[in-house]
Amino acid sequence: EPMLSHVFIGTNDPERATNFYRPIMEALGYPLKFIDQERGWAVWTSPGGARPYFLVGRPFDGEPALAGNGQMIALLAPSRAAVDEVYALAMSGGGRDDGPPGPRPQYHGDYYGAYFRDPDGCKLCVCRHDPD
């Protein structure tokens, strides 16, 4: 059983967020499950349609989406090259650097990751825990 059911990231601009995350999720092999225009949600799933789901959208309460300090979502990458590719996609798609791709031996010997902020300021990590 996976630990998580789903992760939801708030956005103030659902179309911009969908356009930002679509190539990133594609590069990681996470297929788009659906887009709900009315709610302003886009949902990606793990390969095979299994949970956890990754959602971006307008907050349920209708208030503005705010990025949290100390909150981060880390996505697994199938290779170090995918970490590099996703980071480049994030930078070219309007993201902000929060740590370029590279080894992080302070975490463990095989860790390779990159850190960035999406256009709404939410912090994400893309990482590989195993050697290629």
Walk me through the topology:
Elements: E1 6-10, H1 14-28, E2 32-36, E3 41-44, E4 53-57, E5 72-76, H2 80-92, E6 96-103, E7 112-117, E8 123-128
Parallel strand pairs: 1-4, 5-8
Antiparallel strand pairs: 2-3, 3-4, 6-7, 7-8
Helix pairs in contact: 1-2
3D architecture notes:
- The strands form two sheets. Strands 1-4-3-2 form a four-stranded mixed beta sheet, covered by helices on one side. Strands 5-8-7-6 form a four-stranded mixed beta sheet, covered by helices on one side.
- The chain has one domain: 2,3-Dihydroxybiphenyl 1,2-Dioxygenase, domain 1 (Roll).
- It has two helices and eight strands, in the order E-H-E-E-E-E-H-E-E-E.
- It is an alpha/beta fold and 132 residues long.
- A hairpin with a 5-residue loop joins strand 7 and strand 8.
CATH class: Alpha Beta
Give the strand content: 25-35%
Structural class: alpha/beta
Please tally the β strands and state the result: 8
Low-confidence stretches: none
CATH topology assignment: 2,3-Dihydroxybiphenyl 1,2-Dioxygenase, domain 1
The strand line-up of the biggest sheet is 1-4-3-2
Short description:
With 132 residues, this protein is an alpha/beta fold. 21% of the residues lie in helices and 33% in strands. The strands form two sheets. A four-stranded mixed β-sheet has the order 1-4-3-2, covered by helices on one side.
